[in-house]
Amino acid sequence: MNTTKLRGPTLGLTLVAACVAALPVHAQGRVDAQGRTPASKQENIGVVSGLAVGAAAGGPFGAIIGAAAGAWLGDKYHKKAVENATLSNDLSKSEAQRQALTKNIGDLHSELLAQKQASQFGAVLSQTDDLGTDVSFRTNDASINATSLSPLLKLGALAAAMPDVKVRVAGYADPRGSEELNDKLSKDRAEAVAAVLTQAGLSPDQMIVEAHGKSESESCDGDVDGYAFDRRVTVRIERKSGQEVASR
C-alpha cells in the first residue's frame, strides 16, 4: 500500500531529474561537433520551469508536457530577443549611414558655395586688373592697426579661393631718414601685411612681397599729408602671368 503511493511521486522525480540532467548546456553563438546549435539559455530555463510546473500539476506525464511547452516558450523568447538585437544593430547602422550622408551633403553644399563665390570673384576680376586694399602706418612703425585687419582677412580668404591669382604686397616709406632705414621699414610693413594674409588662408606661394623704401615718394620736404600717404602697403590681386616680378 505504501509502496504504491510512493511509486508515482518517485517516478515523477526520476523523470524530472533525468530531463534536467539531459538539458543541453547553454553556449550561445556556438555549434557542436554534429553541426547543431545548442539550446538557448531561455529554452533551458523554459524546460526546467515547465518540468516543475507540469510535475506539480500532472505528475510525470504533466512534467513531460510542461517541459515541452516550456522549451517552446523559451525558444520563442530567445528568437524574439535575437530579432530585437538584430533590429537594434540595423538601426544603429542606419543612423550612422544617415549621419555620414548628412555630412556628405554638408560638404557638397560648402564646396558648391565656394565654387559659386570663386566664379563670382572671377567675373569681377575679369573686369578689373586692380582689386585690392591699402594699409596705412604711423611714422617709423610697422604695426597694423585694428581697422585694417578685417579688410585684409577678407581679401586674403577671397584670394585663397582663387588658385589662378597672385597677390602683390608692396611696402613704402616716406622720404625722411636714410635709404637703408626706409628699405627695412617698408619691408617690415609688407611682411606684416603678408602675415595677416597668410592667417586668412592665402599660401605664401601666391604672394609677391616687395619693399620699395622711399624710392617712389613724391612728397616735398615738410609735406605732412604727403608723408602719411607714403607710409603704406598696397595689396593688389592680379591674374597670374608668364612673367612674375621678383621680390625685393
Q: Which percent bin holds the helix content?
A: 55-70%
Main sheet record: 4 strands, mixed
Sheet with most strands: strand arrangement? 1-4-2-3
Quote the average pLDDT: 74
> How many helices?
5
Q: Approximately what portion of the residues adopt beta-strand conformation? A: 5-15%
Number of domains: 2
Strands, count: 4
The SSE string, one letter per element, is: HHEHEHEHE
Structural class: alpha+beta
From the N-terminal CA to the C-terminal CA, the straight-line distance is 124 Å
The general outline is: rod-shaped
Characteristics:
60% helix; 4-stranded mixed beta sheet; 2 domains; alpha+beta; 248 residues; 60s Ribosomal Protein L30, Chain: A; 5 helices; 10% strand; rod-shaped
Q: What do these coordinates show?
A:
The protein has 248 residues and is α+β, with helices and mostly antiparallel strands. The protein has two domains: 1-127, no CATH class; 129-239, 2-Layer Sandwich (60s Ribosomal Protein L30, Chain: A). Helices cover 60% and strands 10% of the residues. It has a four-stranded mixed sheet. The radius of gyration is 43 Å and the shape is rod-shaped.
In a few lines, what is going on in this structure?
By secondary structure, the chain is of the alpha+beta class. The chain contains 5 helices and 4 strands, in the order H-H-E-H-E-H-E-H-E. It has 2 domains: 1-127, no CATH class; 129-239, 2-Layer Sandwich (60s Ribosomal Protein L30, Chain: A), CATH 3.30.1330.60.
